[in-house]
């Protein structure tokens, strides 16, 4: 965790060549604490009791919550009723719309891959380049995003999703009025096998149900391993308000030291 903080110390802050960056309100601190005294941790019911969380994942996260209390943290329950219910649908309208817009530049002329086209015109070059250069998931998102941004549907889909995004942000803001950070599993399950859900994109999308709400609210998050389930690491998600990275690093550092997690895959033992 200290390494993460040092790396963040280097890359954080205002970049005059990047309009999406900002100055930090306080310097990055390398964590040295050994307890969580004075920290208020909120447990969002909707992020911890969502349908599909594996028993082993829940057990590992619950043990870590108890450990945080033993380390001096004040732990309490909070609610995010709309964030989980609408977060996934909101994300899969906003993200594909942005992907559709941003990836329009990859046409084989200015950026990226260029297909070999024998004869034909510029349209053929565009078509072959984008067909050959993008994978199935990218094409799926471009098609969905283009539809959401099309005339007659923009306000009904993308516009409504942006309004929901504002509601999600306000829910988190209210929760942070009572707590310094929020805690939940990173994913409802442990890692699945490569390609296992490739034929079922919806099932794969549901793996993101717990991480999407804070991302839609524009909040920093941190994921650390907190135990094993079925022989695989369980992720613990820590979420903070904007510019709370120092608090997240401190919490992650303390938990990481106490958990003393050092995973070696069984095939390598």
How many angstroms separate the termini? 25 Å
How would you sum up the major sheet? 5 strands, mixed
N-to-C SSE series?
HEHHEHHHHEHHEEH
Adjacency order of strands in the biggest sheet: 2-1-3-5-4
Rg calc: 21 Å
Sum up the overall morphology in one term: globular
> What fraction of residues sit in β-strands?
5-15%
Count of extended strands: 5
**Derived structural class:** alpha/beta
Q: Uncertain segments of ≥5 residues (pLDDT<50)?
A: none
Give the overall average pLDDT. 91
Instruction: Provide a count of the helices.
Output: 10
Helix residue percentage:
40-55%
What does this structure look like?
There is one protein chain. The chain has helices at 2-11, 45-48, 55-70, 81-102, 122-133, 136-149, 155-175, 201-205, 212-216, 245-259, and strands at residues 40-44, 74-78, 181-185, 221-229, 232-239. It is α/β, with parallel strands linked by helices. A five-stranded mixed β-sheet has the order 2-1-3-5-4. The longest helix has 22 residues, at 81-102. It is globular.
Provide a concise account of the structure shown:
The protein has ten helices and five strands, in the order H-E-H-H-E-H-H-H-H-E-H-H-E-E-H. It is α/β, with parallel strands linked by helices and 269 residues long.
